[in-house]
Description:
binds uridine-5'-diphosphate-xylopyranose; 18 helices; 6-stranded parallel sheet; 46% helix; 8-stranded mixed sheet; alpha/beta
Amino acid sequence: MKITVLGIGHVGLVTAGCMAELGHEVVGYDVDESKIEVVRSGRTPFYEPGLDELLQKGVASGRLTVTVDQGAAIAGADVVFICVGTPGLPHGGPNLTYVQEAAAMVARVATGPVVVAEKSTVPVQTGARVRQALQMEAAARDTEVLMSVVSNPEFLREGSAVQDTLRPDRIVVGADDEHGHDVMRRVYAPMLAQHDCPYVATDVPTAELIKHASNAFLATKISFINAVSRVCELSGADVEVVADAMGHDARIGRAFLNAGIGYGGSCFPKDVRAFDRIASELGYDFGMLRETDKINREAREWPMRRLREHLWNVAGKTVAVLGVAFKPGTDDIREAPSLDIIGELIEEGANIRLHDPVAMDQIRDLFPDAHFAASGVEALDGAHAVILCTEWPEYGEITPADLKARLEYPVVIDARNLWDLAAMRDAGLTAVQVGRG
Ligand code: UDX
């Protein structure tokens, strides 16, 4: 099948690479020529494990090409995936301008029957708007090409995006005509032949809602355990034991019960607000989502509060910050909790020593006065305290002895509960973790 992917950001490029891997003929389109050039040379413009290899394989086989030419991208396509950005707006809803532009472009250029599949995360009822945009453009050009609208949300996580796409927990396809469903079944047939998973065929609004409901639920689970961690601190209980024991209940599950400094990234913060916004526009006050967001913002204040308890005045002190990416396995710093923490440290006059295994290039210009350390261990040298913001596995190799030997004062704020608390305290460190007594 011929598949077009509009927008080769994180979701688009992973989709393009994986569709080529499944044997489809894929064309990726983007307005950004520099991005196109990078991909054409078989590289990825961002850090995503396994994606380079997949793209190289796709390009070498001839099944994956990229272009800035709209006609070449769309002509003859069976399916066009819309993977353009939907950045958050100040009122909480997403900016859907690029989605509308992409739909109009398909209607302008399509030469035969085509399925227009939304993959960008969009609020429920966007499909109806996409259909309207297609019809407007078609009417203006007096064409009668069959265009079916489909919602096919992705559930990929950065850092494991390739695996999540090729071996998903479920595939969700919402369509409002049989042509849309038929074509999408053929798109996923090669994947389902190798990997058995539930295939949820539904209508467009239900598919759109599944995506927002899933992300909002996971975000709420994280905020729930972060709220529990506050009660643990006030009562002397241990949130790690609480989460483990809760997780043994199959109805709850242990995943996404890691207390810390909350969720960041390009999805959860934006999707929680967008879901609240669309619910309110439709007439339902989803106050629970605002509480999820509020608890998440408060979680970011925890490290500075604990730091001040131990250092008193932060001004003039040196603080090491380990991990800047919003989670391990990615160089993405969008909505990363670390940015708020570093911002506060700067505002309060601290000297900062920063390290992240892959996100250093994203932050050099943001914090020109910081010291950029060559390793996590080097970042500790001479610091009065360390704040661990991202639980990169390699930071797990740092021992209490390293911390003790390199830090000026023995203050450890482990905001992701990575290190062994008892071992740190035994080594004479003043160590604190989230929700642990
Ligand atoms: C998320 C969804 O998981 C994915 O299905 C969707 O398609 C896109 O959004 P992603 O943003 O890549 O994926 O990251 P994820 O692994 O879900 O983590 C999100 C944030 O939650 C990170 O900042 C992470 O540190 C935080 N988190 C996660 C916690 O604080 N505690 C946890 O227990 C789990």
